[in-house]
Uroporphyrinogen-III C-methyltransferase
Amino acid sequence: GQGSVALVGAGPGDPELLTLKAVRVLQSADVVLYDDLVAPAVLDVARREARKMLVGKTGYKPSCKQDDINALMVSLARQGKRVVRLKGGDPMVFGRAGEEITAARDAGLPVEVVPGITAAQGAASRLAVSLTHRDHARRLQFVTAHARDGKLPRDIDWTALADPAATTVVYMPQRTWAELAERAVAAGLDPATPAIAVFSATRPEERQVPATVATLAGALHQAVAEGATGPCLILFGHAIGEAAAFAGELEQH
Amino acid sequence: GQGSVALVGAGPGDPELLTLKAVRVLQSADVVLYDDLVAPAVLDVARREARKMLVGKTGYKPSCKQDDINALMVSLARQGKRVVRLKGGDPMVFGRAGEEITAARDAGLPVEVVPGITAAQGAASRLAVSLTHRDHARRLQFVTAHARDGKLPRDIDWTALADPAATTVVYMPQRTWAELAERAVAAGLDPATPAIAVFSATRPEERQVPATVATLAGALHQAVAEGATGPCLILFGHAIGEAAAFAGELEQH
């Protein structure tokens, strides 16, 4: 039969946060090319007979080059395989899906995208905090703090980040958060704005680090020293102050 | 037994985009309070014996007041019912979840949140377009074009919307899009920026209306006249120009 490519969102980690469609597609896969941010419990959902290959490409670790991933994906699909490209969170949100869709299309292969719960949504559900709470937030924005060279992206819109009526979610914040916070404050962000780091959102090892924009860099450092691990996300804005973690009434579900 | 409240994301419409957790919670519900934007096919997933009550509160139609929904939800849970508050998309993204979480907490009830695929993600998967395509977008932002009074919110950050390196998703755009586009262009947004309206994303009646920021108001008007129906979402930004709809090579899955 003809091969195909499906980009599938693995969600933030809890395998129960996979969509029914993701499960169906994973269970009919011949090959699963997965990122190092995909939780092992999610990978277990894939068809047992499927070949599973770690291709990395997210997180801070060394990984395959994007061109190599594209070439492997296309080559396997051309051999008639049903190839699933499994990505942490949602492929369409900081998932490098653009390059892979283009590569598959250029090769004349059918491409399907299955959305996933992105890390921000996983964290918000665990914090039980509305990212667009009517009293606090008119705009929700996602940014990455990690450019191709591993540094802070050069063209961040600092005014947009300083807006007191926005909720901001920072993906891949760990190496550059201190600088990002400093520059956002310089652009007018109130340093007392509630900010929280969430490690391994929705996984058993989840850890929440509530602080403020001004104090989170230190709190983050300490949490890592104390063993906080896994994918990290930072959320800030006045809506985040509604999170249970700040009220000291955090319930574990 | 003790009652409980679960806020559950119904996703954009395709019932296969429910998470496994949403299905589990829906199948153990005693009562489901649902919005008018929840697709009937999603509601069918709920436990057959569950009482299903339309409480509205999304879309443009008249609906129950938020205070009445909160009171009903708390009252049912206090009677020992497992109450599911089922919301289109993700409860934490323009879902009024904040008020309901507070009401349940204030009543001493256990609250759980199950995230859902939000409309922007459903639309992006169908358009096969990365919302954060590396060549085009550094920031992804969600705004609502519909304030409490039905008009454009007064405190929109127009500079943030005019940023050429952002992808913007406008929820509830239909009544106010023309004004929003005009003001964003006045703030510096290139009127030739690709923009697309998606009606009923991921549903059988889905309709995509590709245009530009300048021409979408007219195209939208025409699409509605031609029968486009259901929840509408507008996406704009240079990343959106990568959508298959613009290349005239749209495939239906």
